[in-house]
């Protein structure tokens, strides 16, 4: 079990991916994203998660450059957007992201959403990028079990990661166990339910019990489920606070109580029914 911010899970191809990282969804390009990434790296984070559609890859790249941490210590994720899906267009989109980030290689490249009729072509492009050594690991985001099964029928490389909406109101039990079975690392986006965690009575009660915040309780719950988590914040003190989850452990009973909050509630779009 993760005991330090530097601890990593090992993906099925042997690449190490930190258990906790900084997400930068909805973080403004320029000063805001640069400050957030710098604060995270200073606090000991080594994993940063962005995407082409966030329109802040340049800021992330600038902050990484300014941070002065050896490149091989960092784990940078970005994603191909829906409009760029398809074989050639994905290869082109990847080069654009890589250039904006100012990096020679990307650690993890994901298909952002399972666009019908396109994601298999897109996956072939990711396999090529992986084989060419431009990416250390490839994966998907927002894929349900049936999407993964479909992809696995004729892929040469199995996805290493599936990044999905995952939190106490959407505990994704079946998906989590399917991914574990297949050796695909599950990763949580919106782990803090877009800030809603502070309003959940059970999480307030457990925060009290463990001397932590509701957010820290949820991030610890992620980790104890073997789920990589990428809480987003732009405030330096919150970024630090989110990483302070390695010095305590939730009891099995409390884990089960949090699991019981599950009500299949999504704050984000439904991967089976989106139109963007």
Automatic annotation (TrEMBL):
Residues 20-262 form the NADP-dependent oxidoreductase domain. InterPro entries: AKR (IPR020471), AKR5G (IPR044500), Aldo/ket_reductase_CS (IPR018170), NAD(P)_OxRdtase_dom_sf (IPR036812), NADP_OxRdtase_dom (IPR023210). This is Aldo/keto reductase. Keywords: NADP, Oxidoreductase. The keyword Oxidoreductase applies. Signal peptide: none annotated. Belongs to the aldo/keto reductase family. The keyword Transport does not apply. Pfam families: Aldo_ket_red. Coiled coil: none annotated. It comes from the Bacteria.
């Amino acid at each position: 079990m993760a005991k330090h911010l530097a601890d990593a899970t090992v993906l099925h191809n042997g690449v190490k991916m930190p258990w906790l990282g900084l997400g930068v969804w909805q973080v403004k390009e320029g000063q805001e994203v640069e400050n957030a990434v710098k604060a995270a790296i200073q606090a000991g984070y080594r994993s940063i998660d962005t995407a082409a559609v966030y329109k802040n890859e340049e800021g992330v790249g600038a902050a990484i450059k300014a941070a002065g941490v050896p490149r091989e210590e960092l784990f940078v994720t970005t994603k191909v957007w829906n409009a760029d899906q398809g074989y050639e267009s994905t290869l082109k989109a990847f080069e654009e992201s890589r250039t904006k980030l100012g990096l020679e290689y990307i650690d993890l490249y994901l298909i952002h959403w399972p666009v019908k009729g396109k994601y298999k072509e897109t996956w072939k492009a990711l396999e090529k990028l992986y084989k060419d050594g431009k990416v250390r690991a490839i994966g998907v985001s927002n894929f349900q079990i049936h999407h993964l099964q479909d992809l696995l029928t004729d892929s040469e490389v199995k996805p290493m990661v599936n990044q999905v909406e995952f939190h106490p109101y959407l505990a994704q039990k079946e998906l989590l166990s399917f991914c574990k079975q297949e050796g695909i690392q599950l990763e949580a986006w919106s782990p803090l339910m877009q800030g809603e965690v502070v309003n959940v009575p059970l999480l307030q009660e457990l925060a009290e019990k463990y001397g932590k915040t509701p957010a820290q309780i949820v991030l610890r719950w992620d980790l104890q489920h073997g789920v990589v988590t990428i809480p987003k914040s732009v405030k330096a003190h919150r970024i630090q606070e989110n990483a302070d989850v390695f010095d305590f452990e939730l009891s099995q009973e409390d884990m089960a109580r949090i699991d019981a909050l599950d009500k299949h509630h999504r704050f984000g779009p439904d991967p089976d029914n989106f139109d963007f």
